Each structure stands twice: as structure tokens, then as C-alpha cells.
Amino acid sequence: QVRLVESGGGLVQAGESLRLSCAASGSIRSIGTMGWYRQAPGKQRELVANIRSDANTNYAESVKGRFSISRDNAKNTLYLQMNSLKPEDTAVYYCNAQVWSSSVTLNNYWGQGTQVTVSS
User: CA-CA distance, 104 to 98, in Å (whole number)?
Assistant: First the structure.
């Protein structure tokens, strides 16, 4: 079993920054694509950004130029640096990872979520 634990959320004012972290632990042989998703009240969960094992990244248009995703493969940890935050960034942010627990077993895991609230 694999566990993803997010941290770093909180309440900030518009224009400020936050850094989210997601640490993976458990039965991990290797990790493929990792990503951050978010879900605002009354809305569907959406992709914020993801990063492949080769460090290739992908961002939602709404966060390009403001957010930066990175990973530390040695620590099995994912990061999201969020700058110039806007009230519309308010949501619960979830970490996602595709984890190989063996050479033939690939599973998709989610963290429990961390709340990010941006006041105007």
C-alpha cells in the first residue's frame, strides 16, 4: 500500500505565495507521473499541473506563469510552488501519483487533500 501526505496549505492574501508538498511512502518501486489537482466548492476536480518521471511538466492555463511543479525522486516528494495567488485559486488541493509497487503492478493514488484559501 502507498500513502500520499500533503502539507503546506493555509490562508493567504491575494498576491502572496504558498508551497505545497506531497510525500509518498509505502510499497514503492518507482513513481511515474505525479500531479496536483484541485476542487473548489461546487466544482469538479481539475488538473493544476503534473510532472512525469523525466521531469516533463504540464500546467493548466489558469496557473501558467504563476505555479511551478517539481519533484525530488530520491525523497519521493512532489512540490507545488504557488505565486501571485488569486481568490479563484481557493480550493482543496490533492496530490496524485502513479506508483509502481513491482515491475508489473501500477496503481493510482490520491492524498487526503490540503485546503488553500486566498482572500481578496
Answer: 13
